[in-house]
Every structure is written in structure tokens, then in C-alpha cells.
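Quick one: histidine kinase from Terasakiella brassicae, C-alpha cells please.
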Amino acid sequence: MDLPTNYISEFKEYALQLAEAFKVGIVISKPTGGIVLQVGYDSHPIENVRNVDLHIEGGVNFNLEISSTAHVSETALNAIEKSLNFCLNDLYQRYRIERYEMFLDTAADWFWESDPDNRFVYLSGKVEDVLGLRPAQIIGHTRREIHGRQHDLSTPQWQAHLKQLERHEPYCDFETRWVRPDGGIRHISLSGQPIWTQKGEFAGYRGTGLDITGKKQAQIDFQNLVEGSIQGICIHRHWEFVFVNPALVKMCGYDSAQEFLAVGSVEKMIAPYERERLYEYRLAKERGEQIDTHHVADYLTKSGEVITLESINSLIEWKGQKAILSTVIDVTQQKKAGQKLQEHRDQLQMLVDERTQDLMKSEQRFRNVAEAASDWFWETDENHKVTFISERFYELFDLTHEEVLGNSRLEIVENQMKIPDVSQVWSQHLESLNHHKPFSIRYWVRGRRADRVCIEIKGKPLFDDGGVFKGYIGAGSDVTQEVETQEALRLAVKEAESANSAKSDFLSNMSHELRTPLNAILGFAQLLENNGQANMTERQLMQLKHIRLGGEHLLELVNEILDLSKIEAGKLTIIAEDVDLKNLIDMCLPYASAFSEKYNVKIEDRSVDGLPLIWADALRAKQALLNLLSNAAKYNQANGTVWIDTMETSDGFVRVTIRDNGIGIRESDKEKIFQPFQRAAGQDGVIEGTGIGLVLTKKLLEEMGGRIGFESNYGEGSAFWLDFPQSVTPEKSNAPPDQMQQVDGRSVCAPQTHYTMLYVEDNPSNLSLMAGIVDCIPNLRMVSAHTAEIGLTMLQAQKPDLVLMDINLPGMDGFQAVREIRALEKVKDLPVFAISADALSDTISKGQDAGFDRYLTKPINLPHFMSILDEVLK
Ligand code: ADP
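--- reply ---
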């Protein structure tokens, strides 16, 4: 311990005085070498040099050198040495006391001493600063007296302390509260050491007092803070809890801190699955590794419920030892919410994944469809340069990426595919491109495998949000096969059409060829029957009738075949109108009676008036009805009956049923009777027929929007019915019988004045047939010409009232002739009728186009013809 400078100076001063008084030289130095003092004395000669060590307690050591002349006695030198030694030790003692006082001053606020009765005998002045009492107010009093004034000393704490005092035990840091006279509160800490006499008798206490108000307040503040915190706080050391605040106690479901602390180990509170992880954390912390002070883990409450706590851990000093302070918050709800959120996120992710999958699938599907629909895809930029084209293109055409990308389609086709002239195809295409319109073009190019490949390119323009053209996107396909197939199909259709027209021509010609002689046969037969009855024998009349019936049958057959082929060729013209079914049936009855005669059956007409009008082509409806009537008579038994019934169906049709009690139809035959040329088994050669009547009837009905059906029991009879659609005209029919029926008597000749009819016909039998007809009309005369040219001349000269014109004439034909007539001013309004064996609807409409007023077909139906004459010449 070095002496402070002020003590050294005092020492030096003293040594100087001694040196002067004894007239000696003194050098005081440290053993390490530093000179503390050097006092020379110049009295000579130096005869004595004394070197001694100066010792003081506490280890301070100086070397002392005294140099003197012979005049200085040994005693004087001894005195100098002792004096300096004494001075140094005295200085040192003083300095020690001063230091202790300084220490005490800093270690405690006041000192005190008490006597064996524990009465204060001494108190340092500072006590007043803390307690607000002067030492004099305390001296002479015991602690019990002083503190008893303001404390209940019966508390365990005070009782324990007072016992210590009685037992003269040392005590340390006895803390108590003090209320100053001015009301201020101080917390003080007292420590005391008993004093014993050399005989071992108790002499009192000596001790210190400390004002710990600041520390105590800090403790209280800390406690308030910790106790009042909603955050959990705990302190643990080596995983043993040493402190816990109420918030954490509550968080973990305990009733008190004691109960909590009784659990002891942190480990017991950690959820089992977290233990290993947290143990690792603890080890790392103990190893002093830099680890995150913040962590989240699951813990168990008192009831075993899992809670999630988030804590921040820091190393602190707790009661003199290292410990961990953890501040804790309960994040269970957040975690659950987080988990929920995560679940939602996962679900969302799943949905997104699913949607992505779906999208990928639909994209794949789209690709598949697109690939199936086309062979390659392409894209061009705003300058029509190809920016992308799918690989399939390169497989189909012998081109490289360099030859394609960056070039326009025109460049690729012209330069790479070497197509000589594409200008024609392209002018229109370029127009579309320039106007940024969608396009679809086809052109031929050279392919990898074939010299000529027809490709179809379809493109769609692309625009950005601002409507600026960005290029085209599109697809291309090899349509060679399709184009070739179409071409083959077109040729086939053309061939079929020409074959069909050849068939129509053939049918037309055949019917013409057959009808012309039939015209003569039937016409003359009718004439003979009408006019020659008187001159003919019964037998001849019978024969004549056979001729007529045979002719009619033949005509019927020709007509049916013609009709059937017309229907098949789609050329049958149906002219539907409002028709009264009852009227129609009445018109058929004369024919039906012919059948009844022939097959020896009875016809019973039970049809009723007042049915709704039907919508039908009268001629075709009659044809169908007659066909059924003829069958009912034909496939009947001797003396059988044919019944005609009518009714209105519930679904908007009017039905006529032709029933017979004839042979009926076997089940096995029922299917085939509506097939062409199919007849019931065993009828060929027995009952005359061709097997096309029902087919035709069915087709006619269907053409008119009607239907046909039948019921039949073999051996008992059949019932065939025809359903005609009702007319849209609502009124029921009660019209008088048709005009035709009146003229049907063949003897009625309407015209009374003189009329001339010009008949242009090259066939002599037709001419004489017509002459015969005209003969029976009193006021009509006929002139004839066998060519159109002659006819035209006669026409202008004689101005007839009516012209009948054959179509197939040598030289100018009937069509040309009528055109000529319509061009001649004087005669252009004349009624001109075509009369031809050609009954094809095409020819008929051609006739109407050429200018004919009517188109009559051969053989002539006499009553019909006469009614027309009647009408025209009226
Ligand atoms: P076709 O009478 O010329 O043979 P259809 O087409 O008119 O031809 O009739 C076809 C077949 O239907 C006849 O051959 C006949 O076998 C049968 N058939 C038609 N009507 C009757 C009927 N009323 N009774 C019995 N069989 C009939």
C-alpha cells in the first residue's frame, strides 16, 4: 500500500528537519529504485554512512541512507533512524484510519454502537439524513424503544430479530420500514456485530445502517410490475422453477404460485412431444451458444390440456445465481387460428392444385381437340412474319426452322415450297391480312411425301388492349384427302344425276310410247261403247268392254310405275287443296261399281256428310282410294261385301276405311304388302296384280301428310284405312257434288254456239280419236294440222277459239309453237292447251313456262276433257 502524496510530503518535511538538526545527509528510496527524498548536507568529510530499512505494517518498505561526519554520534544516528521510522508508522496509521473511515462512509449510511443493554451509545451524523432524527435523540434508547414507536414488533420478522439481539448474535441486512418525523418513508437495512471483551463478556453491538429505500422501491416496482403483468413471467434455474407470476399461474391452470412451483421441473410442464426439442435448446443455451432467445412450444396445463406458449428467455442473476427469466404469452388461440388459416390455405392450395390439374387437363383436352381438328398451329407478328409454328408442320413439309421462322407465309410458299403461281389465291388473302380480318384459305403446295398437298390455313387476328394489331394466330391442316374425296363425290353425284335423268328420260319416253297406243285403244273403245252400241251384238259389246278394261289396266300399270318412279325421284308434284272427302268418295263410286261387277261383290257406302274438309291433292287422294276399293273387291270372296266408312280421328285426321270380308292376310304376309312388287303368298297367277298399288298408295298418302294402316284376319277379311290431314279451313263441307259429276254422264255437251278447235297432231289415230270426241259435241268443229308450222299459218288465217297442241311434233315442237303464238299480236290471247303423253311434272311445268294455258295428258279422260271444254268455250 503506497502512502498518498500528502503523507509522503509530511514525511519528507520531517526528514528534512532531522537532516538540518543533526547535520546529516538523508536519502530515502524505494527498494525498487525510486528516490523518495534526498537531502544532502555539505559538512565534510563524510565518515559515516548508515543504510537501514524502514518497515511499516502493511508492507511499505523504504531504504534509508544517513551520511554523517565523525561529529555525529551513534546515538544521534540511532535517534534519527527511530524518529524517521516512528514518523513513517504514525503517518501510515493515520492514513489507515482515514481509509477505513472512507470505506465505512461508502459502505453504510451511518454507524452505530450500543452497550450491553442494547442502548445506543454512538451514531454517526449521517443517521439524521436518513431517519430524520439527530443522534442525540437516539442515544440512550434501545432499538425496541425507537422502532416500537411506529411498529408492531410482534410480527415474526421483528420477533426473530429481537431474539437475535438477546442472544447477541451477529445479523446482517435486517430490513425494516421507517417513517421520518416529516412523514417520509424510508426502508432501512441494519447489520450488527456483537463486541466481546477480552474476558469474553458481551460489550454491546457495533454496526451499520443503510438507506435501501431506492432498492426497496425498485423491488416493489418490480413486484408490482411482475404481479400485475398480463404476461406470464417465471424464473427457473436448471429447469427448476424458482419464481412465477400470477399471470403464468393462471395461464397454466394452477390455483396459486405455490401450487405451480410445487411442480418443480419445467420439463414436467412441456408437452411430451416437445421435450426432446426443448432439451436440445436448453443444452445449447447452457453451452453458451448463440441461440434464438425467442421460441414457441406446447405445454400442459394442470388439467393436461395442451396450450401453446411463446416465450422470450434471458439470462439474469437471481439471488446471486444465474437463472433464466422467461416472459411468456399464451398463443394457443393464435396457433389454432394459424392452424385454421393453414388448413384454409391448404384447402385453398388443394383447390388451386385441383383447378390447375383441371386446367391442365382441359388444356390438354383442348390441345388434343385442337390437334385432332388441325395438323399444326402457327403465330405471326404484326408484319405477318412467322414467329412460331408447331413441329407437325416440319414433319409434313420438307422445311427447316430457318426457312420458316421470320418469313411471311407468302415468302415461305413462293421461295421454299416453289409453288409457281400463288398470286391469284393470295390477292384475296393479302387483302384479309391488310385489313386484319379473320381468314380461311386453301391452296396446293408440295409436301414431304406428296408432290401436291392441299392445305387449309385458318387465322384469327390478335389485338392488344388498346386495339393495336399484334399479329395472327391460327392453325393449318392437310385437307388433301378431304378435297379429293369431295371431288370424287361431286363427280359421283354428277354421274348419279345424269343416270337419274337418263332414267327419267327413259320413263318419260316409255310412258309416252305406251300411252300413245293406249290412247288410241281406250279412246276408240270408249267411242265405240258410246256410239256403236246399237250396231253391235251383245258379244261384241262384251269384247269391246274387255278391250277397254284391258287397256285401262295397262294404263293403270303404266301410271303406277311412272308415279312410283316419280316419287322415288322426288318429282311427283302434289297440289294440295281443301277437298271434301265425301265428294271424293262419291266420285270413286262409279269406278267401284265397275269393280263390284267384275268381282261379284257388293259395295256398301256408309260414308257420312259434314266431316271436316281434308287437305289433299284430289287426284292423288282419289287414286289412293280407288286402289283400296279395287283391292277390297279383288281379294274378296264371291258375293262378298265392301264397306266404305268415314270418321274423324281424335288427332286431327279424317279417316276413310275400306273393309271387306274377303280372304284376309296371313300374319307372315303382313310385313311385305307395303314393299314394291311383294304380294301375299299364293296370289301370283291367281289374282291379277303387280304388288305396287299399296306401296304407291302409302307413298302418296305420306306425300300429302297422311297415313295408311290396316287390320286383317286371314280367312275373315281386311280393313284398310286412309287418314287425311284436316284442312285448316274450319267450315264443314256441305258443298254440292262437283261439276265433274254432272258431266260424267258423257252425253252432256255444254256449248251451244259454234266454236272451232285447232288440233296440231301428227299421230293419225290421235287425230281421229279427237275427231270422234268433237263429233259428239254439237257446236264444236275441229280443224287439224300435222305440224306446228302449218298450225301457226292456219291459226292466223282462221282464228280458232281453242288450240290443242301436241308436244312431240316433227320440226317445230309444241313448246316452240306456243311461244310463237304468244308472240303474235293478233292471236296471243288464244287459249292454247298442250296435249301430250309425257306426264312428267318437269315437262308439265316446262309447258306452263312456255305459255300453255293447260297441260292435258294422254290418254284423254273424256269427262274431264269435256268439262274443260265446257269451261273454256262458255
Ligand atoms: P296388287 O294388288 O297389285 O298385288 P297391292 O300393292 O295393291 O298389289 O297389294 C299388295 C298385296 O297385298 C296384294 O298382292 C295382296 O296380297 C295384299 N292385299 C291388298 N289388299 C288386300 C285385301 N283387301 N285383302 C287381302 N289381301 C290384300
